[in-house]
Amino acid sequence: MSKICTRCLLADFDRAKYEQLIGKSLSDLPPEDLAPFDIRDERLSVCRSCEKLNRGTCLACGCFVEIRAALVRGRCPYKNW
Predict the structure, then answer these.
(1) CA-to-CA distance for 81 and 46, rounded, in angstroms?
(2) Taking the complete model, does pTM exceed 0.85, yes or no?
(3) Contact at 8 Å (CB) between 18 and 8?
(4) Which residue in 40, 49, 48 sits closest to 69, CA to CA?
């Protein structure tokens, strides 16, 4: 069994779980609640460099960062984005 990177997003280490949890959650939301992809990517770039990222979740608030970053109203608990 390979070691899971604690500083990765869920999509980086378990694509099936990502699709099941994140993809399903995002597809259930109205499009107007979702940030544009370029904003999501920018936010996730910040999350990837954050010491609070742990296996796709934020240790500061417990969220899946890929969901929080995708939301128009999503905010970083440390105000990094």
Answers:
(1) 8
(2) no
(3) no
(4) 40
